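debug: dumping io for the single-chain case to check the tokenizer round-trip. Nothing else runs in this session.
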Amino acid sequence: MVFYWPFLLGLFIGIGGRHISDFVVRNVYGATEASTILYTTTYLNMVLMGTAFVFVNFSMRNILQGIGDTMSPLIIFGITNILNIILDPLLIFTLDMGIGGAALATVISLGVGSILVVIRVIQKYLKASRPYFFHI
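debug: decoded output
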């Protein structure tokens, strides 16, 4: 259950953010040039869809740190960042996706990081709960 709430909240914010992204780009950031608005809105809309992964990463990382495992989140986010560094030029230049490729690389990296951190939390939970299973 602890995995669902951050994901759902991030999904809600991501979908809601997509509906107001044009307003935010034009009025909050003050973009006036058409190409700037297009690039910024494209990037923002794609990254907002990865907000669910950001929330899952943040909450699961805090769970791991709360139970004393500070090394696993560090390693997982190192992997996430390295994956993003590899995917950025691949999607931007090789597949000619431009700014959308940069956003997609970020979302893919965050998704992989979310999966890894959830797996680690489950491993830690099962390890901590194992003695109770043997007493049943």
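debug: round-trip ok. The chain has a mean pLDDT of 90.
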